[in-house]
Write a structure and sequence with these properties.
Chain A is 57% helix and 0% strand. Chain A is an all-alpha fold and 176 residues long. The longest helix of chain A has 30 residues. A two-stranded antiparallel ribbon of chain B has the order 1-2. The chains are: A mainly alpha (176), B mainly alpha (483). Chains A and B meet through helix 1, helix 5, helix 8 and helix 10 of A and helix 1 and helix 8 of B. Chain A: This is Cytochrome c-type protein.
């Protein structure tokens, strides 16, 4: 059989490519994981009130199971991976810039609380609360209260009704 | 290569995720318990309102049960009322509406039952709470002129009217406003000591209440506490808590109309509790109430809590203009920026006044031929245009007198101003609202007849002042012309 030097090259390049790809993907995965939670997010000074109120909230582990939703579970979109990564990069750059190059004490957090759906994504809520959509009249509270939402007769997002969800008494912490 | 590999992973993962999302929606659509047919679904919860079987405690939490038990002793009537409500049927209890988070500006622990616990409550329930289960209704309300009522009052207390009514003693001002104006318009509610609403700003039954948490409106103005009954809200008497009297005698106009006579004759036999959108004229009732024409899902129309949706004209302002302003803005502006604004007096149907009229005619068509309704409303339009002729004539005289400094400093002492005020605020509204709502006595005798009498008086005052170049303090006018 005649030797095909280009084939060998392709095979080696492919293996190297796959390896690099796997390593790169894994590194990305680790990076995404490590920067998803309170330890990373709350390392910025301006995030202290959010971290404190989060610790008191059901979503921050103050529940009978001690289960915690990560910051990014709510504050990044979960409709697809590309959008997730893009939004993570975008908000990450934004936050780092404002943390280091502006006076964060001048940010009006109370004003920002009036537009919570700019910072919280319904796809994040629904990732965990996926049962809500299947609720029937057997569970009237869950069904009736969310019917307009799932029937799309309202444009309200989750946080329009559930204000401060994830951060118990957030306004108290912002004030102090 | 690695990049391609990564892209493939990202691509397939997002494809999978979007597919998973779709499958989930499909499951819901196929589930017979969760029909996503909008028109049925939207209001079906209230469909249970007539058959309430819930016994205390069913489906409510332990804490809620303890609220109910204690309040059944302390305030038995409201618990009785609640137990007959569709709220009770759905397991919505005291704490679901009155429980608030600690950082809510209305939060306190003044109820001994929650003192020292981590539960905070508020006496007041803002529409923000109602919107958790009824988001469409609250949004539609906020888009209507009703949402502007308290802002209107706070920004323009009627040319200093209240300052004259409190006899120069500001300590009585709150009494004037709270027992009068605010009971219909609503109040900008302020918090006082002990995290309780202040005496001068609460309680108010008014439809435009502005709550300390930023909520605007008062659902209980029409759906009284604690039954929140649809039947009660559909009866003309609910609207008549405000829409009565010399300046907009809408309940009187209704009673004067054939519609009102039919209601008086057969109303007790009508089916008042049918679900929204399924309250059918000819089946459940045989003449419209206020709610039928202004809100109900009649003859293919969607029910709405925006009472301006089917209105072609603004019939309360000094000059009547068509409602070309789209949605009301004051509530949204306030919720976003905290600013009190005058709102949008020409708020109406976002598709314009012609579409509004079309919708109203669609209501009429449940019972009337097209030509009947068209002909009647065409004459009502002319009556409105005729009113505008009177209004222009009067305002021209007032403007000229003002330019020539021939108006008194205190407008309420000035017969010219008083006559003008009665003309648009009382007689003119009666004429216009009597015309569109088929109240002949109000369109004519309480309306245009008195308007032409007043115009003559204003003309006489005008002529004399222009002739003499000064104000005669003994001139008479205005007083007694209102009803």
């Amino acid at each position: 059989m005649q030797e095909k030097p280009w084939l060998k090259k392709v095979v080696i390049m492919s293996i190297v490519g796959v390896l690099v790809g796997v390593i790169f993907s894994y590194a990305t995965y680790i990076g995404v994981e490590k920067t998803a939670g309170e330890n990373f997010c709350a390392s910025c000074h301006s995030m202290q009130p959010m971290a404190q109120s989060y610790g008191l909230d059901v979503h921050g582990g103050n529940n009978q199971f001690g289960f915690k939703a990560q910051c990014t579970d709510c504050h990044l979109p979960h409709n697809n991976v590309a959008n997730y990564l893009y939004t993570k990069a975008k908000t990450g750059i934004n936050d780092v810039f404002f943390e280091f190059f502006t006076n964060t004490s001048k940010i009006n957090w109370e004003q920002k609380l009036k537009e919570p759906n700019k910072f919280v994504y319904d796809s994040g809520c629904l990732k965990c609360h996926s049962n809500l959509q299947q609720e029937s009249l057997q569970n009237q509270r869950a069904f009736l209260a969310h019917r307009a939402y799932f029937a799309k007769t309202t444009n309200e997002s989750c946080v329009d009704c559930h204000s401060n969800v994830g951060h118990k008494d957030l306004k108290e912490f912002i004030k102090s | 290569m690695g990049v391609i590999f990564l892209l493939v992973i990202v691509g397939s993962a997002s494809w999978y995720l979007s597919k998973a999302n779709k499958t989930q929606n499909q499951v819901v659509a196929d589930n017979p318990n969760v029909s996503l047919n909008n028109s049925n679904l939207r209001y079906a919860n209230i469909a249970y309102s007539e058959k309430i079987t819930l016994s205390k405690g069913k489906g409510v939490t332990k804490q809620a049960a303890s609220c109910i038990e204690c309040h059944a002793q302390k305030t038995p009537a409201i618990v009785q009322d609640w137990s007959k409500s569709s709220m009770a049927h759905a397991g919505v209890s005291c704490i679901d509406c009155h429980g608030v988070s600690k950082d809510n500006p209305m939060a306190n622990q003044n109820c001994p039952g929650v003192k020292g616990t981590n539960i905070y409550v508020s006496k007041m329930v803002s529409p923000k709470t109602c919107a958790k289960c009824h988001p469409n209704e609250v949004k539609e309300f906020e888009e209507s002129g009703h949402a502007r009522a308290a802002f209107h009052l706070a920004l323009k207390p009627d040319q200093g009217l209240i300052a004259h009514e409190d006899m120069g003693a500001p300590e009585y001002k709150d009494a004037v406003v709270l027992t009068g104006c605010a009971q219909c318009h609503g109040s900008i509610i302020k918090m006082g000591p002990n995290h309780e609403p202040t005496q001068g700003t609460w309680p108010s039954h008014g439809i435009g209440n502005v709550y300390p948490d930023g909520g605007v409106g008062n659902c209980a103005s029409c759906h009284f506490n604690h039954q929140f009954s649809i039947a009660q809200a559909r009866k003309p008497s609910s609207c008549a808590t405000c829409h009565l009297g010399p300046d907009h005698p809408d309940i009187e106009v209704y009673n004067n109309s054939v519609h009102g006579a039919l209601f008086a004759a057969h109303g007790d036999k009508w089916h008042w509790g049918s679900p929204p959108g399924a309250w059918i004229p000819g089946v459940d009732y045989d003449a419209p109430t206020c709610a039928t024409c202004h809100m109900s899902g009649v003859n293919g129309l969607q029910p709405t809590h925006n009472v301006d949706m089917r209105l072609k004209w603004n019939l309360w302002a000094p000059i009547s203009k068509e409602r070309t302003g789209g949605y009301e803005t004051a509530a949204f502006e306030y919720m976003k920026t905290g600013k009190l604004t005058a709102g949008n007096p020409l708020a109406g149907n976002p598709k314009g006044p012609q579409e509004a009229r079309k919708e109203m005619l669609q209501v009429c068509a449940s019972c009337h031929t097209q030509s009947f309704a068209n002909n009647y409303l065409a004459m009502a339009d002319k009556q409105i245009e005729l009113y505008n002729k009177y209004a222009h004539a009067a305002s021209e005289m007032i403007n000229t007198l003002e330019k020539k400094h021939l108006m008194m400093k205190d407008p309420w002492a000035d017969p010219a101003f008083r006559t003008y005020y009665y003309m648009w605020h009382h007689e003119g509204r009666r004429m216009r609202q009597g015309a569109v709502m088929e109240g002949p006595d109000y369109s004519h005798w309480h309306g245009v007849f008195q308007l032409q009498q007043s115009l003559r008086i204003l003309q006489a005052i005008y002529n004399q002042r222009m002739k003499d170049g000064k104000i005669d303090p003994n001139q008479i006018g205005g007083v007694g012309m209102g009803e």
